[in-house]
Design goal:
This is Response regulator transcription factor. The chain is α/β, with parallel strands linked by helices and 222 residues long. Helices cover 41% and strands 21% of the residues. The two termini are 31 Å apart.
Length: 222
């Protein structure tokens, strides 16, 4: 899941980003409304965690423009004011959810995860291919009943390939969906991650390389 945090309180923004990354999400951070607006419309994010009172462009305007653009991006609005009137106003602007400060981090994570599920086409709760079973909610992977230990990035790549159901997924798409904006676009990290993932998943191979196009899940004989 790709998340953008737009929050001018740097310590809070960085703490949210660190926590979400520990949950396996790719997270970018903007500390003002102008840069947050630009990032939100350049990259397709699943969820934008958006502070309402921002320097530069106000969070209300960013929220309204995202809602009117027709993007699948979901908005979780944060604000220091938690009155009913403020919540109603935020939701009327197009926010998908609203969380007053201070908040419990576990609640923030649960809300981001719920919004992320709404931002992408519906996928089965458990992803399967031959004897491979991946449970995104529990972040578990087994093959032939045996657990497979994967890093967050390996798990993210595997989920993206399984959700594509045999369609080719390019390196650029994987880089955008699994890594954050700090990753060098010319890096070989996707190729290296797929290579390690193949090794961990074992034989017969479940991931194919489509030369010049990307990767897809292999057809495994029944």
């Amino acid at each position: 899941m790709r998340v953008l945090v737009v929050e001018d309180e740097r310590h809070l923004a960085d703490a949210i980003a660190r926590g979400l990354r520990k949950r396996g999400m790719a997270v970018d951070v903007a500390y003002d409304g102008d840069s947050g607006h630009e990032m939100a419309f350049v990259t397709r994010y699943d969820v934008v965690v958006l502070d309402r009172d921002l320097p530069g462009m106000h969070g209300d305007q960013i929220c309204a423009e995202l809602a009117s653009s027709g993007a699948l991006t979901r908005v979780l609005m944060l604000t220091a004011s938690g009155t009913v009137a403020d919540r109603v106003e935020g939701l009327q602007l197009g926010a998908d959810d609203y969380l007053p400060k201070p908040f419990a981090f576990d609640e923030l994570v649960a809300r981001v995860q719920a919004l992320g599920r709404r931002a992408t086409p519906a996928a089965p709760p458990v992803l399967e291919l031959a004897d491979l079973v991946v449970d995104p909610a529990r972040r578990t992977t087994t093959r032939g009943g045996a657990p497979v230990e994967l890093t967050n990035k390996e798990f993210g790549v595997l989920c993206e390939l399984l959700k594509a159901r045999g369609a080719v997924v390019s390196s650029e798409e994987l880089l955008e969906r699994v890594w954050d904006a700090n990753t060098d676009p010319f890096t070989t990290i996707v190729r290296v991650t797929v290579m390690t993932l193949r090794r961990k998943l074992g034989d017969p191979p479940l991931i194919e390389t489509v030369v010049g196009a990307g990767y897809r899940t292999a057809e495994v004989p029944a």
